[in-house]
Write a structure and sequence with these properties.
With about 140 residues, the chain is an alpha/beta fold. The protein has a single domain, classed as NAD(P)-binding Rossmann-like Domain (Rossmann fold, 3-Layer(aba) Sandwich), CATH 3.40.50.720. The protein has 5 helices and 5 strands; from the N terminus they run E-H-E-H-E-H-E-H-E-H. The protein has a 5-stranded parallel β-sheet. Strand 2, helix 2 and strand 3 form a beta-alpha-beta unit. Helix 1 crosses helix 2. The chain is globular and about 40 Å long. The two termini are about 20 Å apart.
């Protein structure tokens, strides 16, 4: 992504739920594209990990021309998934690949999502229809 316009109109804030390596990668990419990024992970060391990840990744993203509109400083960290998603127009879920964990996080965030927010998942081995179980509005995922 080379410009802020790569995101649909109206997407200014992304939320990251789960900030291991995959979530940290999404965080860096979204920051590079010019978004503000709000992050949640239950780990006590998540902020240090993500900030270090961004610091390490940023020079490579600059060399690739991906950071023209971005800033590594537009990231905020939250203690709950509910708080994390409130401002977001786009939510990237990257929690562990266990359906019970995903169902729990989705149930927690759905009442707090902005009206037009979309939720994407980094899941690779789960079916969307299975992850959508329990949603009031499953089309958001």
């Amino acid at each position: 992504m080379s410009s802020r316009t790569d995101f649909p109109q109206g997407v200014e804030v992304a939320a990251i739920l789960g900030a291991g390596t995959i979530g940290a990668s999404w965080t860096a990419l979204f920051l590079a594209a010019g978004l503000e990024v709000d992050v949640y992970d239950p780990s006590a060391t998540v902020e240090a990990f993500v900030r270090d990840y961004i610091e390490q990744a940023w020079p490579s993203m600059e060399q690739l021309g991906l950071t023209a509109n971005g800033s590594p400083d537009r990231v905020r960290f939250f203690n709950s998934p509910e708080q994390t998603v409130v401002r977001a127009q786009f939510v990237q879920e990257s929690v562990p690949e266990k359906i019970e964990i995903k169902h729990d996080i989705f149930a927690r965030i759905e009442p707090h999502l902005a009206p037009q927010a979309v939720v994407a998942s980094s899941a690779s081995g789960l079916l969307v229809k299975d992850m959508q179980q329990g949603w009031q509005n499953p089309g958001r995922l």
